[in-house]
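User: Need the bound-state model for NAP:
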Amino acid sequence: MRSLKSYVGGQWVASSNRAATLYNPSTEEAIAEIAAGEVDWKQVLAYSREKGAAALQSLTFAQRGEILQAMAKTLHEGREELITLATQNGGNTRGDAKFDIDGASFTLAAYADIGAKLGDTTILVDGDPEQIGRTARFSAQHIRLPRAGVAVHINAFNFPAWGLAEKAAAALLAGMPVISKPASATALVSHRMVEMFLEKDVLPEGALSFIAGSSGDLLSHLQGQDVLSFTGSSDTAKILRSTEGVIERSVHINVEADSLNAAVLAPDVELGSETFGLFINDVVRDMTQKTGQKCTAIRRIFVPDERVDDVVAAMSERLADLVVGDPAADSNVRMGPVATETQYKDVRAGIERLAAQTDEGFGGMGEIEGRGSKDGKGYFVGPVLRVTRDAANCDALHSDEVFGPVSTVAAYSGSASDAAKLIQMGKGGLVTSLYSDDRSFFTELVPLVAAFHGRLYLGSEKMAGQSPGPGTVMPALLHGGPGRAGGGEELGGLRGMAFYQQRTALQGDKAILAAITGVK
Ligand code: NAP
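Assistant: Bound-state model below.
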């Protein structure tokens, strides 16, 4: 059985304060273990700060971009092996594994392109020069430079490849060394990714470290120039935010947490229209892709009262065709198990809570025997669609993120302002998708809900053929959301680097500023 170690201080070492076993969620067989050991986390941070930061900050954006390009290429070359590991350790179908792994290389490549465009410089100019004196001589310019510390990344279990890559891309391009910790239960893919990067020698020493298992007291040693970026549950976020060292030294922290993402069908959308087809495709995909274990998955589907039966029927028809089972045992399987036993129990409990306040739409309580499963093994949950005609009083709908293939169709009046009130009951989300061919529906609804989201997806006939759906996070667009979603911001092209940089206002003689920034 594979033994997973951490890559810290320039070597592979056992560092977790507890051993852990990784399982295949389709068969419940043990496939790897995280080795227990001791490490001095203060030293680990010091090594990254000294070695990694120095190496990265001696490079221009273009050169850092070349590193990201080499990382993307490495993942692409190792793609088949990583897909196999994602199926073993995450229960991923081939499509789900590609979504994670190709998403990782695509995001690295996108940041490599940004690096190439920024070119042979190390200072990012922020905005235009401004005259602040009587004459143009006395001038000001904002600049951004990397923080002189380490970027600690802690990721959720559902995207072991993309999670590592999307955070690392922005940090490394900005010039900060990274220490990345995946969730223990699905660490196999990210562990192998780091092995591949080392085999190909694509990164400077100290630029990327990796934690297998727990991070011990690492967070308590963070300093004011370090940053912490976390993706996971709100409960863990609360613990991390309240770590003594983090509070005391004002460590910058970015949180990507839960989200009860919504989709809204406008009353103008006719059954059988292209926009209706886009809506059904998106909601079914986002309910079932990665077995619903996606932070961007659609949990609340708001539909005009008179369309509820049609939408439930159209979705049920699609869901009935979905083969659930062990992706490694049968190539017809389109949805694998949830990732862990804990996850299985949480999802089952979440369905119970939702069922107490909603009616059945499809799939009962999610009981299912996975195709290809042996002796009833495997953490399989069938797709579950619930229905409510009293959305405003259905607490579970707006407060409980059931992190599995579970979604609810909820009736609303058809007015944009009513839709907005219901969307806002989610208390802040990553993405909401709106479907209409009536521009006035968008112009009325967008200003009412934009403040509650990092991203709004506007589905209509004209873009239907080109859209990957709201659940796909794109490197050029912001990822994150206010309130319940954690209040964080990632990606968004250049914007994604801001977290890893200090913005500094320079004021002085225009010619001196120009000599520093290169801006005439
Ligand atoms: P989790 O239980 O909160 O764990 C997330 C990460 O935190 C794991 O790496 C975990 O490590 C680590 N962790 C837990 N306690 C810690 C501590 N005291 N100190 C340091 N690290 C600690 O969340 P999860 O179950 O993996 O992920 C599911 C949740 O993530 C869902 O709520 C989902 O909505 C959210 N999510 C959000 C996004 C987004 O972008 N907004 C994306 C994906 C998922 P161990 O595994 O070693 O315990």
